[in-house]
C-alpha cells in the first residue's frame, strides 16, 4: 500500500579503481618513479538507530515535536540539523502535478494499458512508471537518481523511494522482479551519494533486501496487517512504522512499540497547525 500526500513537482558507485604505475630506474641515478590513481571513495552511509522517535512529514515540513530524533520529509524540503533525515522520493509512480512533464519529456516511461493510456494508481491520482525493461529502468534511474543526488546535496542521511509495490496496481504489466531490479539501481545510486536507502512497504521483497541493497524499512500500516515483526526481523529493528488510525497505532505500540519507531499520523500527513493534524508516538 502507499499513503502519501500530493507535493509539488519542482522539488524533486562510483567504481573504485586503482592503477599502479610502472617502476622505472633512471640510468646512473637509481631514481624510482611510481604512480597510483584512485577514484574518490563513496561517502560513508549512516544507518538509522532502532527505536528512534520518528515523525513523518512528507505532507509538509514543520518544527519537529519535542523528542523527535528522526523524520522523513519530501525531497524539496530541508533536513533538520541534528536529526536523522530521510528524503521522500516518489520513485515508482508520478506525482499528480508532474504528469505534463512526463508526457512531454518521457512519455514512453509511463506504463500504458492496451489502449495506450497511462496506468494509474486511482487512490492517489498517480501514473505508474514503466520498469518492465532494462533500458527503461536505466533511463528512469538517471532521472530518479538525480533526485537522490539532490537529497544528499541537501543534507539528508537517507532516502525512501516510494511505491516499490506499484506492480500490484499494474494489472500484471509489471512484476516484483522488474521493481526489484529498478530498486537495486536506486540503492547503488543512493550508496554512491552516501545515503542509506529504505524499503518502503511490501513484505513480498523482504527476502531480496540484501541483493537489492536496502538498509532499513519504512512500513505503513504494518500494525494493521500484522507485518511489523517481519520487517523487524529483516532489518534488525531499523524500521519506521506509520499508522493512520488510533486502533492500528495502539496495536503496533503493543506489539512492537518497545523496539521499533512507531508514529500515528493523519492520512493526509498534514503539517502541524492544520485542521486534522495527528501526531502520536508510543
TrEMBL record:
InterPro entries, A to Z: Aldolase_TIM (IPR013785), GH (IPR017853), GH114_TIM-barrel (IPR004352), TAT_signal (IPR006311)
Residue span(s) of domain Glycoside-hydrolase family GH114 TIM-barrel: 53-269
Entry-linked SUPFAM superfamilies: (Trans)glycosidases (SSF51445)
Pfam families per UniProt: Glyco_hydro_114
Protein name, per record: Glycoside-hydrolase family GH114 TIM-barrel domain-containing protein
Source species of the chain: Streptomyces microflavus (Streptomyces lipmanii)
Amino acid at each position: 500500500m502507499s499513503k502519501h500526500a500530493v507535493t509539488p513537482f519542482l522539488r524533486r558507485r562510483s567504481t573504485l579503481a586503482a592503477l599502479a604505475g610502472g617502476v622505472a630506474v633512471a640510468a646512473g641515478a637509481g631514481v624510482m618513479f611510481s604512480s597510483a590513481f584512485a577514484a574518490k571513495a563513496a561517502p560513508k552511509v549512516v544507518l538509522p538507530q532502532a527505536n528512534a522517535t520518528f515523525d513523518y512529514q512528507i505532507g509538509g515540513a514543520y518544527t519537529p515535536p519535542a523528542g523527535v530524533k528522526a523524520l522523513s520529509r519530501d525531497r524539496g524540503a530541508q533536513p533538520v540539523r541534528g536529526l536523522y533525515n530521510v528524503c521522500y522520493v516518489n520513485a515508482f509512480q508520478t506525482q499528480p502535478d508532474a504528469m505534463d512533464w512526463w508526457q512531454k519529456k518521457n512519455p514512453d516511461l509511463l506504463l500504458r494499458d492496451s489502449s495506450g493510456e497511462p496506468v494509474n494508481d486511482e487512490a492517489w491520482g498517480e501514473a505508474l512508471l514503466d520498469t518492465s525493461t532494462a533500458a527503461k529502468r536505466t533511463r528512469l534511474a538517471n532521472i530518479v537518481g538525480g533526485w537522490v543526488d539532490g537529497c544528499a546535496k541537501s543534507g539528508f542521511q537517507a532516502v525512501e523511494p516510494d511505491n516499490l509495490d506499484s506492480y500490484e496496481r499494474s494489472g500484471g504489466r509489471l512484476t516484483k522482479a522488474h521493481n526489484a531490479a529498478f530498486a537495486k539501481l536506486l540503492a547503488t545510486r543512493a550508496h554512491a551519494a552516501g545515503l542509506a536507502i529504505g524499503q518502503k512497504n511490501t513484505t513480498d521483497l523482504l527476502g531480496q533486501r540484501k541483493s537489492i541493497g536496502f538498509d532499513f524499512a519504512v512500513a505503513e500500516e504494518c500494525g494493521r496487517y500484522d507485518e511489523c515483526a517481519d520487517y523487524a526481523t529483516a532489518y534488525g529493528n531499523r524500521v519506521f512504522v506509520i499508522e493512520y488510525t488510533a486502533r492500528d497505532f495502539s496495536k503496533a505500540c503493543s506489539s512492537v512499540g518497545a523496539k521499533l519507531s512507531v508514529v500515528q499520523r493523519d492520512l493526509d500527513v498534514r503539517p502541524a497547525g492544520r485542521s486534522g493534524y495527528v501526531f502520536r508516538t508510543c
